[in-house]
Write a structure and sequence with these properties.
single chain; eight-stranded mixed beta sheet; alpha/beta
Length: about 325
């Protein structure tokens, strides 16, 4: 039988790359597994801490643990998966040592940086790419599976770079999304605001709910304690999940509850209850409620309450309407 290669004279399969990873943290090791599943060869990783060594030996057992400069020198595709604050120093060190060969594809996974941070290696002939998975990583098995449902913010220096970045992301099962160099900080800030602050919001709500549910329960009801995944979390989970889904599907129209309705008395009572439990929770509730009230174009009197007294006791002129957009009916 004549193969496609015999007919065309070239191998139709995508080029497989020799991959090196610095370092084998949560992100780097997960990307390494995804690249290997796509057919690339992760020959070596840099791992210094005990946790990184364990991840490397567990997730990438066929890879060698090597110094960063040796990993860089032998790579066709070099993945720099270090924290944002360490990336400039790592790039400068590799450039000073001339550890990266001309033509090497150098990818970093920093959300806040574009390709500018790779300039010292670009000057040596490397092809710079910024490929950031918009996903949180725990260090457990679900990390790799989540990559298949994640978007990746990609930035490159030219169209060739974008084509390579797009191919790599698609091979790993993700969805590539172009982010302009000058917008990387805003892109990263938006992701941090929507994910990290969501965690803080949920943890604060769970803390308050635990206090509200403490004491005798119904027959067979689980006791309230301070361990994760308990009763308070189970009460909140369906509501929080539905709220997140509604927000992503419907935008500001998903806002419900007393803030969206402009219920000054209810919100004032909430503030008093939070203040009695923990003034820090009250401050967080006040700030988030103010933003929600602005989004919902809520009752100006409620916005005055949430803003608090201003110097001179003067109110601020507003052009907000009390008519909120249509939204789902809920009682909370």
């Amino acid at each position: 039988m004549t193969s496609d290669k015999d007919v065309c004279g070239t191998d139709p399969a995508p080029a497989r790359l020799t991959v090196g990873i610095v370092s084998a943290g949560r992100v780097g090791s997960a990307l390494g597994v995804a690249l290997e599943r796509a057919g690339h060869v992760v020959f070596g990783v840099s791992a210094i801490s005990d946790a990184s060594v364990r991840r490397a030996t567990t997730r990438l057992p066929d890879s060698h643990i090597l110094p960063a400069e040796e990993v860089a020198a032998r790579s066709e595709l070099l993945v720099l998966a270090v924290p944002d604050s360490e990336l400039p120093g790592l790039v400068a060190g590799l450039a000073a040592a001339h550890a990266v060969r001309s033509g090497t594809i150098v990818v970093h996974t920093s959300g806040a940086n574009g390709v500018g941070v790779l300039a010292p290696l670009t000057e040596l002939g490397a092809l710079p790419l910024a490929i950031h998975p918009a996903m949180t990583f725990t260090g457990h098995d679900e990390d790799v599976a989540r990559l298949a449902n994640a978007c990746f913010g990609v930035t490159a220096a030219d169209d060739i770079g974008y084509a390579i970045a797009q191919s790599l992301v698609i091979e790993m099962g993700g969805e590539p999304v172009r982010v302009a160099e000058e917008n990387r900080t805003l892109y990263h800030a938006a992701l941090a605001h929507g994910s990290n602050h969501l965690v803080t919001l949920i943890v604060d709500a769970v803390e308050a709910l635990r206090a509200a549910l403490s004491g005798p329960g119904l027959l067979g009801q689980q006791l309230v304690d301070d361990q994760p995944n308990g009763l308070a979390e189970r009460v909140l989970a369906p509501l929080a999940s539905a709220a997140l889904d509604n927000a992503l599907r419907r935008g500001p129209a998903a806002l419900t509850g007393p803030v969206a309705r402009g219920d000054v008395a209810a919100v004032a009572a909430h503030l008093e209850a939070f203040e009695a439990l923990d003034p820090r929770l009250a401050a967080g509730y006040r700030a988030q409620s103010l933003r929600a009230a602005e989004r919902a174009r809520s009752n100006p009197a409620l916005i005055d309450l949430l803003e608090g007294p201003r110097p001179g006791g003067q109110g601020r002129q507003r052009s907000v309407t009390t008519e909120a957009p249509d939204r789902p009916e809920k009682g909370h």
